[in-house]
Amino acid sequence: MKQRIITAIIAAAVFLPIVIVGGFPIILLAYLLASIALYELLRMRHLSLFSIPGLISLLVLWIFLLPEQYQDFLTDLGYTKVEFALLAVLLFLTYTVATKNKFTFDDVAFSIMATLYVGMGFLYFIETREAGLVYIFYSLFIIWATDSGAYFIGRAIGKRKLWPEISPNKTVEGFLGGIFCAVIVAILFILFSDMDASLLKLVLVTIVLSVFGQVGDLVESALKRHYNVKDSGTILPGHGGILDRFDSLLFVWPLVHFLQLL
């Protein structure tokens, strides 16, 4: 526990000032976090980031993460992000032939999904910060409240297992407790911030975000269980890897936009 607290304090001391400053530093932070997360995902399947398919995945990820204001060179080349992704698919498939199926069709699918999974989440991390600092803090506090509520309420009164095949310690009571705590935080944001949303809309959106934040956590748990790994990485002592810390937010940041909260 002591190690977890120390790591959390150091990470917050680095992460929060960059989030507050925003602009180009937040883009660099997103690129760094996304690249590490992709490395962690590929390693689960015993694929190296420093290989031909790994480097293709990384290049596509970096292109995918480009905010709109930095896409001029793509326009000058006459390509879109989607076309680069489709080109990557062709390169991946070509590599299956070149390696005589040592790099398989399943590896192609995993590489593409890993890139989209990580890229989508961190792209909307950038977009959410650009929409306003309050929305980043809202998303962070919603997930912290959900995680804390699920943990403490689950420990206190949790009896019915939520999804024991995926995450044996999670309970239905904890799941609902996490949503309840997230809604309390949302109400506080309405009362004490300048968020441009009605109370009803924010509460409804918060419920969806809290649910899918917990789903994001279960998705990563399912991945780790499938590939028989305890943590996605070791970069954060006591916490695991970048995916272990951002799994919920990779679902929440896109949904903040898809649900038209901004």
TrEMBL record:
Pathway: Phospholipid metabolism; CDP-diacylglycerol biosynthesis; CDP-diacylglycerol from sn-glycerol 3-phosphate: step 3/3; Lipid metabolism. The lineage of its organism: Bacteria, Bacillati, Bacillota, Bacilli, Bacillales. Its EC number is 2.7.7.41. This is Phosphatidate cytidylyltransferase. It is a multi-pass membrane protein. Keywords: Cell membrane, Lipid biosynthesis, Lipid metabolism, Membrane, Nucleotidyltransferase, Phospholipid biosynthesis, Phospholipid metabolism, Transferase, Transmembrane, Transmembrane helix. It comes from the Bacteria. GO terms for molecular function: phosphatidate cytidylyltransferase activity. It is found in: Cell membrane. It is an enzyme of class 2 (transferase). It comes from Anoxybacillus andreesenii. Its main location: membrane. Belongs to the CDS family. It catalyses: a 1,2-diacyl-sn-glycero-3-phosphate + CTP + H(+) = a CDP-1,2-diacyl-sn-glycerol + diphosphate. The chain crosses the membrane at residues 6-34, 46-65, 77-96, 108-126, 132-153, 174-193, 199-219.
